[in-house]
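Dig into what follows:
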Amino acid sequence: MDRDLAARLDEVDGRIAQAASDAGRDPASLTRIVVTKFHPAALVAELAALGVRDVGENKQQELTAKRAELPDLPVEWHFIGQIQTNKARAVRAAASIVHSVDRARLADVLDAAAPDEASVLDVLLQINLTDDPGRGGVAPAELEALAEHVDGCPTLRVRGVMAVAPLDEAPAAAFARLHTYSDRLRTVVPDADWISAGMTADFAEAIAAGATHLRIGSAITGPRPIRG
């Protein structure tokens, strides 16, 4: 077992607990997702042995490969990257939860990829917090329409919102806006109260703004392996 990995996990969990305390929140109400992008499946297995129960992947190919290598690992697999519609079926087959639904067409393909009518996939609606339409996420003005559409997909369950803080804005201000979008979503889907926000550099600000799911990578996993 990698002692450094265990130490980093403990250190980050301590920082999460402190940020939650500072915000007057219960740390137990937060879900810490360890993002294992570019790391081998063996690292995911080590994390599971340390008690990690939520892991995140950005790429469909990596998610599919790691899930196949670790079919019985007791973890929830969160897909947090952008999804091309031609890869939606593979994402649906491997992911426990999808954080990045940002258009009706993608929701339709994910819904159609359900293995059976009884299957339910938890999804979050990704919101674009920038003025750049090229960034992932639905425009805030279109949130309610997307929520109504996805809520009407029989095998999808809308759980909340997700966003990435813009690079040119203070995270606290961006996450405060995200909280208002969460409120708006719940006028359409009342129990969709998850807020997926906050990464290694800004999770304290996300917690203060009401985030429920934190996506933390290198602070726990260490530097990502260099890809040739």
